[in-house]
Amino acid sequence: MNFSDYQGIYVVAIPKNGQLVKVSAELIGQAQKLASQLGEKVAAVIAGHHLEDMAQELIYLGADMVYTIDSPILSHYDGVAYQKALGQFFKEKKPNVVLFGADSYGRDLAPRLAGELVCGVTADVTGLSIDEETKLIVWTRPAMGGNIMADIISPDYRPQMGTVRPGIFHAPKKDLSRKGSIIPVTISLDMNDLGTILKEVLRAEDDCPLENAELILAGGRGFHTKAEWAQLHELAHLMGAAVGCSRPMSVMGFEPFTHQIGQTGKGVSPKVYMALGISGAMQHMCAVKPDILIAVNKDPEAPIMKLADYAIVADLRKFIPMFIEKLKALKEKE
Ligand SMILES: Cc1cc2nc3c(=O)[nH]c(=O)nc-3n(C[C@H](O)[C@H](O)[C@H](O)COP(=O)(O)OP(=O)(O)OC[C@H]3O[C@@H](n4cnc5c(N)ncnc54)[C@H](O)[C@@H]3O)c2cc1C
Question: Model confidence over 189-213: pLDDT tens digits?
């Protein structure tokens, strides 16, 4: 394998419901950082249908060039068809690095392509850097049940590939003056390339999804009863916030698993993250990257109190009812 043939940092963007997903933007930001250190270009490849606006958005976010694989066969994600399309594309392009989002699509597609391209893939990455000496990508991820952070490299195969957790990195701001090339790629696909025939899509109802929330109120084991948990929801509603939780609260059935934050849940990067009755275990905090972290805990020595920008020592059973009362009074005055 001649490594010098393998060039470029590629981001794989897989649209959902006809839109770019936030992790694609986050990946472009990381690809830009890696590319500037390696002196390479950032390319995005987007596969789906009706891709013009999304391709332009990827340029605004920081891609130097965007390859579009547009076909009605790719209207909805299908692992078999996407593997065929992107497998063919990457065999021709020979990228140095390929970044996927570690969402359900990326987690399915990356190992399929690793098999086809005969290379490795590091799953669920939470940190990306470059080894100064070898210029290899260092993929960092929790290992051994989350007790250590492992650095993984791929010295013997190309491309170097990894899936990156959504919500861990900040998405770059769009620069509407950026220019780049949009390059259509033709790959012949027909119905026989589909692994499944999609008959109907039933959308899950979630009126306040965590991924896009700017304000998150996350509760942990400091809440002892469902009645106290209902107060967390009331407070979140008054503040226009999404509700998240630590693992014990989803395991105990206080909150659906889809709202669990952490190593085995979702990654989030809101403007403000208010952690209520959460101790700050590494398995929770590794997926929390807010601009501002506020912690409310009755124990001033809880680990999260040292990480927080604002640490409030309080008992939730008093703090939350008082907070709700104050907000209601303010709203009545408006
Ligand atoms: C492989 C693995 C994966 C994991 N994945 C995840 C994950 O994805 N997400 C996750 O969250 N965890 C995960 N965990 C669990 C993690 O290690 C912690 O056990 C968990 O995050 C602790 O949740 P907590 O902070 O709510 O509870 P605790 O650690 O019990 O903390 C409760 C906090 O509430 C405070 N408190 C108690 N009562 C009150 C009160 N009345 N008022 C104010 N404060 C109060 C306490 O002082 C304490 O700090 C994982 C663990 C493993 C081993």
Answer: 999 999 999 898 887 776 667 877 9
Q: Is 2 exposed, middle or buried (0-12, 13-18, 19+ CB in 10 A)?
A: exposed
Residues contacting 196, CB < 8 A, separation 6+: 78, 80
Q: Which residue has the tokens 């086809």?
A: 116
Q: What are phi and psi of 124, to 5 degrees?
A: 60, 45
Ligand 1 atom 38, closest CA: 222
pTM listed for this prediction: 0.75
State the pairing for strand pair 272-276/242-245. unpaired
Q: Which amino acid is at 118?
A: V
Q: Encode pLDDT of 129-139 as tens digits.
A: 999 999 999 99
What amino acid occupies position 245? C
Residues within 6 Å of ligand 1 by CB: 145-146, 220-222, 246-248, 260, 262-265, 277-279, 281, 283-284, 297-299, 302, 315-317
Instruction: Return the number of other C-beta atoms located less than 10 Å from residue 150's C-beta.
Output: 11
DSSP string, 3-71: GGG---EEEEE--BTTB--HHHHHHHHHHHHHHHHHT--EEEEEEESS-HHHHHHHHHHT-SEEEEEE-
Residue tagged 């409030």 (tokens):
312
Q: Scanning the structure block, which residue is given the tokens 């109120």? A: 217
